[in-house]
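pls ignore typos typing on phone
3,4-dihydroxyphenylalanine + seq
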Amino acid sequence: MDTIDKITAEIEAFKVNAAADLDNFRLKFLSKKSELQTLLSEIKNVPAEQRKAFGQQVNLLKQKAQAFFDEQKQRIEDAAPATGSLTDPTRPATAVKLGSRHPISIMMDEVCEIFERIGFTTVAGPDIEDDWHIFTALNFPEEHPARDMQDTFFIDQKPDIALRTHTSTLQVRTMEKHQPPIRVICPGRVFRNEAITSRAHCIFHQMEGLYIDENVSFADMKQTLMYFAKQMFGENTRIRLRPSYFPFTEPSAEMDVSCNICGGEGCALCKHTGWVEILGCGMVDPNVLENCGIDSKKYSGFAFGLGIERMTMLKYKTNDIRLYFENDARFLQQFTAAKL
Ligand code: DAH
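k done
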């Protein structure tokens, strides 16, 4: 009974200031090796007539120790300083900032959509190509100087393989697989071994268009491209075609649109001409049709290839192509699809 009194006094005097004190308390009074536990196991050795009273006292003490422990534990937990978001699970979450689509992606989607509205289908193909699809099938004869029009990245060990220099490769791939009528639009990345400046990059994007059917004329091409220019840059946009040369089209042309920055008055972007070049086009050369297994006596068609960066710079009035590849968040955050 003396030990019971002693332990009772110890419990009453015990100071709990921190979680570590709680651990000490548990070891001292509640663990298997504690004095209190020893008392409990001695109940059976107490003479029968005192056993009941002794047992009650020891059990009361045990309850008291446990109650003290629970109470102090709660108090320590309640007083713990608020840490992190776990303290209030009902608090509204911090908003996660969404990224925005890359301006080049926004532009490619928009061009595809404009052409899809008049029945074109979008197709894609490989960035790494063979000589046949980049040059030979497109009427660039071997050793022909026209191959130098585009500075090509070749693969050293395999001279037949290169990074495609234009998306015209997809004209070939499409015609090899399908007979006319063909109406496709082909967006993609292209590569040229060029010095990087504010106007040129070694990686950029093009969009190829191809329309093959019976009796397709130059006038069909002109109307299609005029529709596109007005949809993209506004109803008042004018276009003009200048004669040009590409091995895969005959006749060939380059198309300018009236400068939408100065409205045709003349500014730095249009080099004070009022016009900006946006694409190359022409009637598909019969040699190309035949190379791809299409009867050039029965079918004719037109093709065009436009530069996506060029158009994006024009539309968003930016003057340095490198901005599109540096991925500076401050630049990219200015573009959302909604702005178009
Ligand atoms: N492939 C040409 C280039 O990269 C662009 C081009 C011009 C594509 C005329 C065409 C076309 O389909 O008809 O410079």
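The mean pLDDT is 90. The first strand starts at residue 121 and ends at 122. more later
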